[in-house]
């Protein structure tokens, strides 16, 4: 719609015969825009989001670890679910080697207290899959 309106604005100057048609086009209302996403979350909202999964169950622990790693490293979902065990550094402070877009390696720190990824590793099923996070069926 913006392109059409711009074209008719051009026509109004080049071809004055089309002024009335241009006014009709300019009178078409714009599509209502959806409300924008939240620009940021407060510290309390972020903490509530990170603490939402129940850490007393294995899958709650996995979900909490996923949220903490994604937030601490700023990972995309595809990067998060493709993390492998050999990409997690066990030293303190822990870091993760992430294959970013374009195949570039990035090192991300898990924060000062990376207890959730390590707690998940202790309870995750050892089924031979190299991926860090598994679904309910034990598959990556």
Provide an overview of this structure.
There is one protein chain. By secondary structure, this protein is mainly alpha-helical. The chain folds into two domains: 1-34, no CATH class; 43-123, hpI Integrase, Chain A. It is built from six helices and two strands; from the N terminus they run H-H-H-H-H-E-E-H. A two-stranded antiparallel ribbon has the order 1-2. Helix 1 (2-14) runs antiparallel to helix 2 (19-26) and helix 4 (58-73) packs antiparallel against helix 6. The longest helix is centred in the middle third of the chain and has 16 residues, at 58-73. 14% of the residues are buried. The model has no long low-confidence stretch (mean pLDDT 79).
Quick overview of this protein structure:
The chain has six helices and two strands. It has 140 residues and is mainly alpha-helical.
Low-confidence stretches: none
How would you describe the shape?
A: elongated
Instruction: Kindly state the number of beta strands.
Output: 2
Class computed from helices, strands and strand pairing: mainly alpha
Which CATH first-tier class of the largest domain would you pick?
Answer: Mainly Alpha
Fraction of residues in β-strands: 5-15%
Query: Strand order across the biggest sheet?
Result: 1-2
Distance between the termini: 44 Å
The total domain count is 2
Work out the helicity level: 40-55%
CATH topology of the largest domain: hpI Integrase, Chain A
Rounded Rg: 25 Å
Number of helices: 6
Secondary-structure element series: HHHHHEEH
């Amino acid at each position: 719609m913006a392109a059409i309106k711009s074209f008719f604005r051009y026509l109004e100057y080049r071809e004055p015969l089309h002024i009335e048609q241009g006014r009709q086009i300019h009178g078409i209302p714009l599509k209502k825009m959806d409300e924008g996403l939240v620009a940021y979350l407060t510290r309390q909202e972020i903490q509530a989001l990170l603490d939402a999964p129940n850490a007393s169950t294995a899958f709650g622990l996995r979900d909490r670890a996923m949220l903490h790693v994604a937030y601490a490293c700023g990972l995309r979902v595809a990067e998060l679910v493709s993390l492998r065990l050999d990409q997690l550094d066990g030293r303190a402070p822990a870091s993760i080697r992430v294959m970013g877009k374009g195949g570039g390696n990035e090192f991300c720190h898990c924060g000062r207290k990376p207890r959730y990824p390590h707690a998940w590793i202790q309870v995750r099923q050892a089924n031979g899959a190299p991926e860090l996070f598994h679904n309910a069926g034990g598959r990556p």
